UniProtKB/TrEMBL annotation:
Keyword Metal-binding recorded: yes
Gene3D superfamilies: Cytochrome P450 (1.10.630.10)
Protein's name in the database: Cytochrome P450
GO MF term list: cholest-4-en-3-one 26-monooxygenase activity; heme binding; iron ion binding; steroid hydroxylase activity
Sorted UniProt keywords: Heme, Iron, Metal-binding, Monooxygenase, Oxidoreductase
Length: 450
């Protein structure tokens, strides 16, 4: 079917009337409906990226293959699943995503136009609650100032000091899983090393890490809700995390140590300390980001190796290929599916007119399967060179923890290759129900020692 011209008002999927503009999350919207005519390609008209059931069995790569081919800059109309009752732009090609991610003046991580909310999710979040307070929802100069405070704690030279400790932890973790034989790779292995590492870096007692892990899982998964919705369970998890963070900051203020939260507790920018809200949001962000994305990259990477046992044998024999394998796992997993920006001014992208205030979503996972950059993109290739993946984003918001994630993956897989002879699935992988993170809930495996 060729491209057809549709006025937005004629789109067949009528949005929920309770979510029409003006009645969005927290009543934040102040955005008039679009009246311009938009080109929608027939081959993509059935795609709804706000229907989380579409992501419940992993990332829907086939949908994005169609988008890259037919509508690389696509206006996603609102559906019954879409928060705020308004559409948004979907970018699926590598070059467009890199361009937008590198232009923070035109595409803000906070807000734009007449919009009274914003942030990096499809749904609007309130200004001064998350927007402008969370590090990943800040623009410069505040973003650069806060980031500069944290960077020394995750620099390669600093992380080198904890690598031996991580190797000892990894050996203990892998040996415990081997003793079980049958285990949940996600819970017992993939999550455990990143969780221990982030607890150590933040100054969280190790005995508290699983409680924080549980709260983060509840907040990030959508097993009992849809986009833009909260349940009593998710609200309780967020409140418990914030309360824990407040207690931790109080302790670090009174008795600082050599950890990241002590640094944040005593840091100043232009002579002023971080606000209590900035501290609370920073703690929640680092707990989630420091454990969630890496564990999923590890789990999905291991799944690819289970499906290609000859690669497992090859890596065991030649560890010089491990760094390249880790990069391919990161591309393959692409654990953060998308981030949103908001247009600050009227502009064009390709042949599309984007207005100030429009939501623009950058789908990193799709960029990492773009055949114009990655030949044979749906093939897991540990020898892929070059591999300029966007698993950690691009531009000023490039992932602060990228060095830590790479080191954790390298250390854990090095240990697994030393100790594990074979690995096989014993039941299907269970994925999280989310379009924001390609996550694994459970991955039952049987490990045999080498």
């Amino acid at each position: 079917m060729g491209a057809v011209q549709l006025d937005r008002g004629s789109w067949p999927c009528e949005p929920n009337p309770l979510r029409r503009p003006g009645f969005g999350l927290h009543g934040l919207l102040n955005v008039p409906p679009r009246t311009d005519t938009l080109c929608l390609a027939g081959p993509v008209e059935d795609i709804d990226l706000t229907d989380l059931d579409r992501f419940a069995r992993g990332f829907p790569h086939a949908d994005f293959d169609r988008l890259r081919e037919h509508e690389p800059v696509w206006w996603h109309p609102p559906t019954a699943h879409t928060p705020d009752g308004e559409g948004f732009w979907v970018l699926s090609r590598y070059a467009d995503i890199v361009a937008v991610a590198g232009d923070s003046r035109t595409y803000s991580s906070e807000t734009g136009g007449e919009r009274r909310g914003g942030g990096t999710l499809i749904e609007d979040l309130p200004v001064d609650w998350a927007v402008g307070v969370l590090l990943n929802m800040m623009d410069d100069p505040r973003h650069a100032d806060v980031r500069r405070l944290l960077m020394p704690s995750v620099a390669p030279r600093t992380l080198k000091l904890i690598e031996d400790d991580l190797r000892q932890r990894a050996a203990t973790i892998v040996d415990a899983a081997l003793d079980k034989g049958d285990c949940d790779f996600l819970i017992d292995l993939a999550a455990e090393l990143p969780l221990q590492a982030v607890a150590q870096l933040l100054g969280v007692p190790q005995e508290d890490r699983h409680q924080l892990f549980g709260w983060a899982n509840v907040a990030l998964d959508y097993d009992d809700r849809d986009l833009g919705e909260a349940t009593a369970r998710t609200q309780a998890a967020v409140a418990e995390t914030r309360a824990y963070g407040a207690r931790l900051f109080a302790a670090k203020t009174a008795d600082p140590a050599e950890d990241l939260m002590s640094l944040a507790a005593h840091a100043t920018i232009d002579g002023r300390p971080l606000t209590d809200m900035e501290k609370a949001m920073l703690f929640s962000l680092l707990i989630a980001a420091g454990s969630e994305t890496t564990r999923n990259s590890i789990a999905v990477g291991m799944l690819a190796l289970i499906e290609r046992p000859e690669l497992w044998r090859s890596l065991h024999e030649d560890r010089s290929a491990l760094d390249g394998a880790v990069e391919e796992m990161l591309r393959w997993a692409s654990s953060t599916s998308y981030n949103r920006r908001t247009a600050t001014r009227d502009t064009t992208l390709g042949d599309r007119r984007i207005r100030a205030g429009d939501k623009v979503t950058l789908w990193w996972t799709s960029a990492n399967r773009d055949a114009s950059v990655f030949p044979d993109p749906h093939r897991f290739d540990i020898g892929r060179r070059p591999n300029p993946h966007l698993a950690f984003g691009r531009g000023g918001h490039f992932c602060l923890g990228s060095n830590l994630a790479r080191m954790e993956m390298r250390v854990l897989f090095d240990t697994l290759l030393d100790r594990v002879g074979t690995a096989e699935l014993t039941a299907p992988v269970e994925y999280t129900r989310s379009n924001k993170h390609t996550g694994v809930r459970h991955m039952p495996v049987r490990l045999t020692p080498r």
